[in-house]
Amino acid sequence: MSDDCVFCSIAAGEIPARTVYETDSVLAFLDANPLARGHTLMIPKSHARHVGDLDADLASELFDAVASLTPRIQAAVDADGANVGVNDGAAAGQEVPHVHVHVVPRFEGDGGAPIHAVAGERPDLSDDELDAVADEVAAAIDG
C-alpha cells in the first residue's frame, strides 16, 4: 500500500467505490469519471506503479480478471464492443500512479475512436527503420 495513492485507499476501503468484482488480489470498480456507461477500472490491490512492477502471479490474476470480466461488462450494459487499455507512465496519460486497466464499453455510433487514436500523429517509418526497431525491442526482451 502507498499512503498517498487514491487506488490504494480504495482497495483498503478508506474511499468508497462502486465495486463490481473483488478477490484477495484484484479489485474492479466503476470509473468515477466514466468515458462510457459501464467504464470499469481493474487494479491490483497491492501497489504497483507500472505494469513492469507486477510480479508474474499478480499480473496473471489481474489480466485473467480483465479477460473474464470484459465480456460480462459488455453484456451488462448491452455494449457492441469495448476498448481495453493501460496507460503506463505519465507520458502515456497515466493520471493515478497505480496500475489500472480500463474497460470502456463501446456502442455503435458513440463517436469514439480506435485505440490508435490515442497516440496522436503516426510516425512514418521505413522498412529499414521498422527492422531496426524490431531488433532493438527483441534485444531488450532477450536481456
TrEMBL record:
GO biological process: any one? nucleotide metabolic process
UniProt cross-references to InterPro entries, sorted A to Z: Histidine_triad_CS, Histidine_triad_HIT, HIT-like, HIT-like_sf
MF terms from GO for this chain are: catalytic activity
Q: Motif Histidine triad motif: list the residue ranges.
A: 98-102
Residue ranges of domain HIT in the record: 6-113
What superkingdom heads the lineage? Answer: Archaea
Name of one Pfam family that matches: HIT
Active-site residue numbers: H100
Q: Mind telling me what this protein is named?
A: Histidine triad (HIT) family protein
- Organism annotation: Halorubrum sodomense
